[in-house]
Amino acid sequence: MCGRYEFTLEDSEELRRVAELLEARYGPGGWQTGEIRPTATAPVLRTGEKKAQVELMRWGYALPHTLVINARAESVREKPLFRDAVAARRCVVPTAGFYEWDGDGRKYRFRLPGEGALYLAGLYEVREGVPCYCILTTAANPSMAPIHDRMPLVLTRRDLRPWLERPQAAAALLEREPPALEARPMDPQLRLW
After folding, report:
1. Where exactly are the structural domains of the chain?
2. How many whole angstroms from its chain centre is CA 115?
3. H or E element that contains 121
4. pLDDT tens across 156-168, in order?
C-alpha cells in the first residue's frame, strides 16, 4: 500500500521543472508540497495531445463509503473499476519518495539511490467533474519486503513514455519488479501525550 508520498523541490531539478510547468498553467500555489496524503491536490503527468503534460488532480477515487487510493497492478486489467483506465488513462505521479510504516509503527522514507525524483505508475479518471488518480501497487521487492509486503509500482525515467504512450509496453511494466530502493527511518515525531 502507498498512503503517503513526498513532493519536494529541494533535491530535484526534475520536480522543480514540474512545479514550473504547474505554475505556468495554473498560477502560483494551488497544490501541496511536502508530505502528500490522500485527497490532496497534487501534480500528475499524463499524455496530452502531442506530448506529456502536467495536471493537478486529487489523490483517490471517491466512491460511496470509501476512497480508493491504490490499485493492485496484478489485477487492474480484470477489475471493472480500473479496466478502462489501465487501457487508456495511465498517468505518472512525480515524487521525491514515498513513506511506509513497519509493523511496529516506525516510518520509513523510500527513494531511488542517487536520484532526486521517484516516479510512480498511476491511473486517472474524472469522477463527478473532479480529475482524480490512484497509485498502482505491486508485490514488494527485496529492498521493500522487510518493511511491507506491497509497494508502489516504481517507474524509471526510461519507463515514463512507454507507460504513458504504449499499451503493450505498459502491460509489461505492470508485471516487472520495481528497482531497488533505499530506505531511511524517519525520526519519531514529538508526542505531546
Report:
1. 4-185
2. 16
3. strand 118-127
4. 999 999 999 999 9
Distance CA 161, CA 48 (A): 12
pLDDT tens sequence across 30-40: 788 899 999 99
**d(C-alpha 16, C-alpha 143), whole Å:** 27
Residue 136: HSE in the Cβ half-sphere, 13 Å Cα cutoff: 33
Q: Which CATH superfamily is domain 4-185 in?
A: SOS response associated peptidase-like (3.90.1680.10)
Full-prediction pTM beyond 0.90?
yes
Label residue 163 left, alpha or beta by phi (over 0 means left) and psi (-120 to 50 means alpha).
alpha
Work out whether strand 52-59 and strand 130-139 pair parallel, antiparallel, or are unpaired: parallel
Q: Provide the β-strand partners of residue 135.
A: 70, 122
What is the three-state SS of 28-90? CCCCCCEEECCCCEEEEEEECCCCEEEEEEEECEEECCEEECEEECCCCCCCCCCHHHHHHCE
Cell of 2: 502507498
Tens of pLDDT, residues 54-100: 999 999 999 989 999 999 999 999 999 999 999 999 999 999 999 99
Q: Distance (Å, rounded) from C-alpha 181 to C-alpha 125?
A: 29
Q: How many CB atoms lie within 10 A of CB 41?
A: 16
